[in-house]
Recover the amino acids of this structure.
């Protein structure tokens, strides 16, 4: 394994970082090849910046090692590392002019010069760069970032874009082995950002040094990188080329984060067969357990629209938005929704048929520990999900809150909230659902479609009339096709408010 | 019926009246007295004699020298003591630094005379009082003016962007180089504002020099007081006040206190006055 990849410039081995008791980076293993443009991509708080800061030396890993060219540098301070950073807010020194900013690192640098003494013997001397050498290097760096002649300018007279370039010049002038860029384009406007993306890419080619880039912008990552590392919650989700990441996302998170996705709960009745949206589709994935619950991802541009009678599914168009090169069409299939990108124009209310090619259906293993549903709070401590309605405890959404007689929620601060119709995510553990013969007893009912003996218990999948699946674990033996009612105690229903879409 | 109509301009009338009565007129009077003399009948006549008098008197020039020296030493020690404290308070990242900062500021709110009297007792106990008049005076002044140094320093250090220090570190600078080339220059507004606020009162606050210097030290403030109350020579007293004013003016000029867009922190510090 170690020998497989040559010329690793940076390698993170089992790196974990915790602040107090919060784990920010969990067991990250990652290597960067020499000369590569690698991007750490993820939503804010995913640990990408912390990872970068550990490579720069601003943070020390709590455990694990950071290797540079095979040498452990975990404990080395930033000023001893052959690495330079372009900071998020540039961090240019306001009391120095452009020249002095760029020359800051050069003035500290020592080079080994070789001399010949009178006897003809050579000897070496550690020396600072001469003034002329520094001036020459600064000039070159300014040329690279296209700001020739800016030496005397004060930082405060520069625009955001120019400051950005100076920040880059200040880093590359030191000829680092690795250039670290921490969301460097975040503060620029869209047009400027697009320009800089291409320039950075060109600069990377020209300089030939390794770039490690951090961003939350998936498009930026896909445009510029050789390799993309997708992170979430301090864990690497997937490492691959932009094409790999886009076409073969490893899990729902990656699929959802990179590009637009339709994500459905599905199951695998057999190899190369997947069931979702109420019917079975042919797909190319195999190696799953029989009836294993899976996540299914379909890219909007991979959904084909055909006349209704020719479709695998029939849908009704609910929204059409013109996006320039294509239409973004939302359509309803029963209760589910599908997003389609197409150059064909449709009208709201049109009936369409839908075809999805087997190789466009991405099936992903589901880490199944909990049943997750989209739900809506109806009234007074009731929540609707999974084709049923259950009692719940809405006061747990807001710590310290209570319900008044009319069913309004009073928060700890005394605010009155009407929760009726509020969308929530509902989570129910596998062991928290009980089955019963009495159809009146439970909040939802369905047929047992699968049971698997798991050593000390059975795992059942109960499917409701509208194809919502409950997965539950029980020690009791039921039979396949038994019609059961599902009971969930209110305190076992975990509710979380749906976050309104950011970005 | 008379209707009173207030515009915003009229709201500053009380202040204008106050300013005229207690600032402008006295200032003019001081100027008048400084450059006049009095004949036998008590008539004022224009003269530069006070001026020449001051600069030809060894004892007066000596007092000026002593005042400047005490002020310099006080400012120097205040800065040396305050900077590390302000630095630690501002950059420790500890969430309750404000509590600590308060500990340094609270003495400012204690009665000044009480503070100095207490210090006098303390110096008496350790045997300094009466033996080291200059040392005691400087100790008293540093003690008294330290908060005025800490606060502006704290303000300028605290708003310094941490990423600048990281950038310096990233570019190869060790802690010493980073401090000398980044932290120190960036905290300059705070230093200047602190220096101004300690230097100026150090030259005039004769309560400290009297109480702790066992009445053996005369600084400019004391001399002014003497000319006004003991010698009843308002002309010389006024002239010394003008000289003091000029020195303060020069200090301000040197420290950039008049700059149009003076740094926010120094402005905030100046509000202490």
């Amino acid at each position: 394994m170690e020998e497989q990849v040559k010329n690793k410039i940076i390698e993170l081995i089992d790196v974990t970082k915790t602040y107090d008791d919060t784990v920010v980076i969990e067991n990250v293993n990652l290597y960067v090849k020499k000369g590569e443009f690698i991007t750490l991509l993820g939503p804010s708080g995913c640990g990408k910046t912390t990872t970068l800061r550990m490579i720069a030396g601003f943070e020390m890993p709590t455990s694990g090692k950071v290797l540079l060219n095979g040498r452990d540098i975990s404990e080395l301070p930033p000023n001893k590392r052959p690495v330079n950073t372009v900071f998020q807010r540039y961090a240019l020194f306001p009391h120095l002019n452009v020249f002095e900013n760029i020359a800051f690192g050069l003035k500290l640098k020592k080079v080994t010069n070789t001399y010949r003494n009178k006897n003809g013997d050579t000897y070496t001397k550690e020396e600072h760069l001469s003034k002329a050498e520094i001036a020459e290097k600064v000039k070159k760096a300014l040329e690279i970032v296209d700001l020739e002649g800016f030496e005397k300018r004060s930082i405060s007279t520069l625009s955001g874009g120019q400051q950005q370039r100076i920040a880059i010049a200040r880093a590359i002038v030191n000829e680092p082995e690795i250039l670290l860029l921490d969301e460097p384009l975040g503060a620029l406007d869209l047009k400027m950002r697009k320009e800089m993306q291409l320039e950075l890419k060109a600069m990377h080619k020209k300089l030939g040094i390794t770039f490690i880039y951090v961003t939350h912008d998936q498009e930026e990552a896909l445009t510029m990188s050789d390799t993309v590392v997708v992170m979430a919650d301090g864990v690497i989700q997937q490492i691959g080329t932009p094409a790999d990441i886009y076409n073969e996302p490893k899990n729902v998170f990656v699929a959802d984060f990179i590009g637009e996705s339709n994500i459905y709960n599905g199951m695998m009745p057999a190899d190369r067969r997947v069931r979702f949206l109420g019917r079975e589709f042919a797909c190319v994935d195999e190696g799953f357990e029989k009836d294993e619950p899976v996540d299914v991802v379909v890219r909007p541009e991979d959904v084909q629209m055909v006349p209704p009678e020719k479709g695998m599914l029939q849908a009704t168009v609910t929204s059409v938005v013109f996006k320039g090169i294509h239409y973004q069409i939302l359509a309803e299939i029963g209760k589910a929704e599908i997003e389609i990108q197409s150059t064909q124009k449709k009208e709201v209310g049109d009936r369409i048929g839908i075809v999805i090619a087997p190789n466009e259906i991405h099936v992903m293993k589901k880490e199944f520990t909990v049943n997750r549903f989209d739900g809506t709070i109806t009234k007074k401590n009731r929540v609707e999900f999974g084709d049923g309605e259950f009692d719940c405890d809405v006061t747990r959404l807001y710590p310290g809150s209570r319900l008044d007689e009319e069913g309004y929620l009073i928060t700890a601060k005394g605010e009155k909230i009407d929760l009726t119709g509020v969308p929530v995510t509902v989570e129910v553990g596998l062991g928290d659902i009980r089955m019963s013969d009495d159809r009146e007893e439970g909040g939802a009912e369905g047929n047992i479609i699968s049971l698997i003996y798991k050593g000390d218990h059975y795992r059942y999948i109960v499917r409701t009339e509208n194809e919502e699946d409950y997965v539950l674990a029980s020690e009791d033996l039921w039979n396949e096709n038994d019609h059961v009612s599902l009971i969930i105690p209110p305190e076992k229903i975990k509710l979380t408010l749906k976050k309104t879409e950011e970005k | 019926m008379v209707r009173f109509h207030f515009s915003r301009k009229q709201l500053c009338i009380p202040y204008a009246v106050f300013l005229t009565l207690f600032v402008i007129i006295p200032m003019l009077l001081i100027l008048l007295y400084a450059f006049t003399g009095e004949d036998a009948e008590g008539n004022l006549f224009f003269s530069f004699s006070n001026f020449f008098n001051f600069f030809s008197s060894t004892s007066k020039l000596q007092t000026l020298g002593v005042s400047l020296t005490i002020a310099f030493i006080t400012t120097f020690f205040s800065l040396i003591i305050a900077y590390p404290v302000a630095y630690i308070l501002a950059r420790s990242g500890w969430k309750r630094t404000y509590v600590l900062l308060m500990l340094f500021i609270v003495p400012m709110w204690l009665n000044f005379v009480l503070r100095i009297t207490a210090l006098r007792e303390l110096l008496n106990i350790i045997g300094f009082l009466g033996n080291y008049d200059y040392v005691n005076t400087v100790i008293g002044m540093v003690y008294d003016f330290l908060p005025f140094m800490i606060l502006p320093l704290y303000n300028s250090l605290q708003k310094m962007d941490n990423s600048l220090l990281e950038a310096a570190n990233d570019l190869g600078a060790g802690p010493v180089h980073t401090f000398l080339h980044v932290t120190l220059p960036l905290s300059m507004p705070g230093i200047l504002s602190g220096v101004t606020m300690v230097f100026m009162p150090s030259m005039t606050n004769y309560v400290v020099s009297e109480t702790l210097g066992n009445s053996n030290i005369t600084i400019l403030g004391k001399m002014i007081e003497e000319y006004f109350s003991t010698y009843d020579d308002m002309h010389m007293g006024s002239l010394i006040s003008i000289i003091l004013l000029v020195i303060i003016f020069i200090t301000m000029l040197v420290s950039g206190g008049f700059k149009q867009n003076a740094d926010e922190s120094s402005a905030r510090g100046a509000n202490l006055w």
Remarks:
- The longest strand of chain A covers residues 8-19.
- Residues 100-175 of chain A form one domain.
